[in-house]
Amino acid sequence: MAEEENKGQTQVLTSIQTVGTYQWAMVIDADRCTGCKACVIACRAENNIQTVGAEQVNMGRLMDWMRVDRFWEDEFHHKVSTGRLAADQEATEEHIRKEAYEGDGFPNIVATFVPMLCQQCGTAPCESVCPVFASVHTNDGLNAQVYNRCVGTRVCANNCPYRVRILNFYTPTWDAPMEQMLNPDVSVRSEGVMEKCTFCVQRIRRSNLDAKVANKPLLDGELRSACAQACPSGAITFGNRNDPESTVNVVLKENESRSHRVLDELFDTRPNVIYLRPQRVPDAL
Amino acid sequence: MTEAVEGRPHAHEHINYNFVAPDMSIPEIYDACFEPVGKSGWKSNIVIGVSLLLIGWAFFKWLEQNFVGFGKTGLHLPVFWGYYIITFVFWIGVAHAGALISALLRLGGAEWKGVVTRVAEVITLFTLPAAGSFPLVHLGRFEVFYYMLPYPNSRLLWPNFKSMLMWDVFAISTYLTGSVLFLYVTMIPDLGIARPRMKGWMRTLYTLASWGWRGTAEEWKRVKEAAALYSVIILPVVISVHTIVSWDFAMEVVPAWHSEVFGPLFFVGALYSGVAAVVTMLTILYWTYKPYQRLITSVHYDMLGRIWLVLGLAWAYLFVNDFMPAYYSHEPEKMDYLWYNAFGTYAPGWWFLVVGNFVCPLFCLASKGFRRSRLPMFVLSIIVNICMYLERVVIFLPGQEIYDHLNGAVTHYSPSFTEISIVVGSFGWVIGGLCVFCRIFPILPFWEVAETRSRQIEREIAGVKVNYFQSGE
Questions:
Q1: Can you tell me the distance from the alpha carbon of B207 to that of A242, in angstroms, rounded to the nearest whole number?
Q2: Distance between CA A225 and CA A142 in Å, rounded?
């Protein structure tokens, strides 16, 4: 396995997903997500993401690699989208709308949370457009960003349909004792380079090396991304897609009917992040 | 017909439109063409001084942006390409005037080209570096811009030739090289002819730059061959450059940009603004230098106006074409973009663009009287160039601002003071550069005008004096 890892040279020229021992993937269950954003905080702590301050955030320069999108649904649309109401029952829509919005009390609305992070696309739109190969594909299915190589054309951010790439607008600074808490495994990015979710590549590489030193295979569960580790409701599962016994594959197999990949049908990006549609029946509805 | 040739009974405009040779002897043409060369005046001193100030300030702001951080610009998620890129495309467009107009006129054998060609080429000479500098200014890390060049290095790292930004690098550098050579080769005879009459450092400059030009038949043959050859070579380059610039956008997944019509739309738009720039420049030359008034006639305006009208129609067709298929297919993202343009934040600019760039030129340029009057053409050229800038704004910015497939958020971007300073500085570079050029080199090509004059033959046919030109050498 260690040989496998070293054998293939990184196929940077092709964005086709390579098949090796590892294909890192993530499954996010929208039913389990409560929108607590613990994953966002964990990601910030793990990956030395700079805190830019209120002024910059108001300008739309929040540096988070992960965000939690909220989608609001009223009762009718929720029932249609979860299949409990046929879409042709439109005659009732007017009635339900009235009930939902004009009845007394709070409208009957359901929120669905979708944690959005770099989808580590198999055929990533950002990779082909980077003029200097700063955005490349690795053998284990990651969409890597080479900070040293990045010149900051920002074309990758334009070409990312998920809008998860961010530019470092200023060189990050930390007040006096705070730089002590930086994760030594992760480089601090300088001004002018793009950054994004790496699937906690530092953990992946560390685990790979540890397994190699111990001369044993890297087992499922030995490695989790920071967001998966922090998620209190277990909505995020991280693991190796090429291992049929891995938790990722088990969860996927159990929930095959709910699984989908975001925007894959529009752009054929083949993301390595797989979402499970919400199916819960809220008490209110 | 004009002030210059009025009173000549034979200069009848209905007989030969190609006739624009001035009613001057060749020494007079020489004096007129070289009138501003080597002279300085307080007006041009002021222009150059102000330009230098603008360039200096822009340079300072650019340094500040590099040292303080890219946050000095107004860019933010999801608008990552702002006024730098808009101005880049605008200057590329204006730069298209040069090579294309002069190459087309040369190949088409238009006898009136003499006055126009070098003006157009010199506009390219200054606008193209202005354009080329913006992608560099726009880089997050300017200090490593050379990563985009295919230089040999120990890690055998190459740039990504699949990226359209790489195509851009090569297209623009090819076009810059080609248009500088094109301009320079056709300038050599003028430099050689004027060399003995120059004094001081200008003489040294002309001597060095004319490469020992003596004016032998062989040399003339070679210059003309080279000019013809460059004309042929530069045409595909011109077409490819702006198409490639449009692919920077059309090849991305942003719905408003992902359009097949961008290639021809950008190309035609570039020529459209290029002709406008030539008209602006010709008019300013006309007003600034008195001797030029005998060389720049209303026939030039007429001819340029016709080209302009055709390009305007083509532009309008393609611009509407950008929206119509989207409208009929009701593609949601494209419809959002269309409505956002027509009724959103950018609505005033968008409607000004539609009127100023399409409706207004169409009706104005269709009239010969309008085409032949200087001031209205000048005003129209300014309006069209403002509109072409607006066109880039309404194509690039709204597309990014409303671009969010996932949660449909709309953000607004406005340029920061740094961006405005650098953009204004590029205007300073172009205007100041043109001014300096006029003071050092003849901006109207003496030999081409003189050649036209010497090939002119007057003959009386059926009682009417007509002018026509000896064909060939």
A1: 73
A2: 13
Contact A110, A282 (CB under 8 A): yes
* A151/B160 touch (CB, cutoff 8 Å), yes or no: no
Measured N-to-C along each axis, helices B298-329 and B374-401 cross at an angle, to the nearest 10 degrees, of: 20
User: Phi and psi at residue B461, in whole multiples of 5°?
Assistant: -120, 120
Q: Smallest Cα–Cα separation from B110: which of B1, B225, B17, B227?
A: B17
CB contact under 8 A, A169 and B169: no
d(CA A137, CA A13): 9
Q: Is the dihedral of CA B312, B315, B321, B322 positive or negative?
A: negative
pLDDT, one tens digit per residue, over B209-255 is 888 888 888 888 888 888 888 888 888 888 888 899 999 898 888 88
DSSP assignment of B453-467: HHHEEEEEETTEEEE
What values do phi and psi take at A29, rounded to 5? -95, 110
Residues 6+ apart with CB under 8 A from A260: A274, A275, A276, A277
Decide: helix, strand or coil at residue A237.
Answer: strand
Q: Are B39 and B467 in contact (CB under 8 A)?
A: no
Contact residues, chain A, for B141 at CB < 8 Å? 150-152, 190-193
Q: What gap in Å lies between CA B398 and CA B81, rounded to an integer? A: 11
What is the per-residue pLDDT across A170-227, written as a single tens digit (0 to 9) for each? 998 888 888 888 999 999 999 889 999 999 999 999 999 999 899 888 888 888 999 9
Parallel/antiparallel/unpaired status of strands A259-260 and A236-240: unpaired
Average pLDDT across chain A, whole number: 81
Q: Mean of the per-residue pLDDT values for chain B?
A: 83
**How many Cβ atoms sit within 10 Å of the Cβ of residue B254?**
21
Backbone CA torsion sign across B151, B153, B156, B159 = negative
Residue type for B186, please? Answer: T
For chain B, report the end-to-end CA distance as a whole number of angstroms: 29
Name the token pair of B422: 């650098």
Q: Residue B390 is encoded by which pair of tokens?
A: 């607006």
Q: What is the rounded radius of gyration, in angstroms, for the C-alpha atoms of chain A?
A: 21
Residue B40 phi, psi (nearest 5): -125, 150
3-state helix, strand, coil in chain B (%, to 5): 70, 5, 25
Question: If DSSP codes are grouped into helix, strand and coil, which group holds residue A73?
Answer: strand
Strand partners of residue A111: A72
Alpha helices in A17-176 (DSSP H): 38-46, 54-58, 75-81, 91-97, 125-129, 155-158
How many CA atoms lie within 13 Å of B336's alpha carbon, on the beta-carbon side? 17
* Residue B6, pLDDT score: 43
CA B217, B223, B225, B227 torsion-angle sign: negative
Interface test with B, best of A158, A160, A196, A269 (most B CBs within 10 A): A158
- Nearest CA of chain B to the CA of A245: how many Å? 32
Q: What letters, b where the CB count within 10 A reaches 16 and e where it falls short, cover A26-49?
A: bbbbbebbeeebbbbebbbebbbb
A132 and B69 in contact by Cβ < 8 A?
A: no
How many C-beta neighbours within 10 Å does residue A163 have?
19
* pTM (two decimals): 0.86
Of B202, B172, B150, nearest in space to B96 by CA: B172
Q: What are the residue ranges of helices labelled H in B402-416?
A: none
Min distance B131 CA to chain A CA atoms (Å): 16
Q: Do B253 and A169 count as a contact with CB atoms less than 8 A apart?
A: no
pLDDT at A200: 93
Cα–Cα distance for residue pair B24/B237, rounded to 1 Å: 37
d(CA B346, CA B18): 43
Write out the H or E segment, with its range, that includes residue B391: helix B374-401
In this structure, the number of other CB atoms found within 10 A of the CB of residue B106 comes to: 21
Q: Of B72, B84, B85, B141, which to mutate for an interface test with A (greatest number of A Cβ within 10 Å)?
A: B141
